[in-house]
Design a protein that fits this description.
Layout lengths: L19 E9 L1 H4 L8 E3 L10 E7 L5 E7 L5 H7 E2 L7 E4 L4
Antiparallel strand pairs: 1-4, 1-5, 1-6, 2-3, 3-4
Length: 102
Amino acid sequence: FTSIELPVSVEAKRPYESTYVALASGTLSHDAFGSAATTLDAVLTVETPNVSYSCIGAHGTLASGDTIWKIMSRTRLSDAILDEHARAGVGGGARRRRGCPA
């Protein structure tokens, strides 16, 4: 995320944390993100029992035109969780996983 500037007050030193990364192609889910799903290119949040990821960001585009979404989390996300947030697109929504740390 290159267009975000944080205030100095949040720049605290802290230990590194392991992060899992999942890549999904397609579109963001309207069920999860409502009408904003078609206009979002990034979602930043805090993981809670109801939110299983730290951030979701557009990471590129496939030849089919599908967006590649990079989903970061503190734990490995299941296919079911990925399906709740990203829907298969023209290319079928193929998914790849990367282990931690990201």
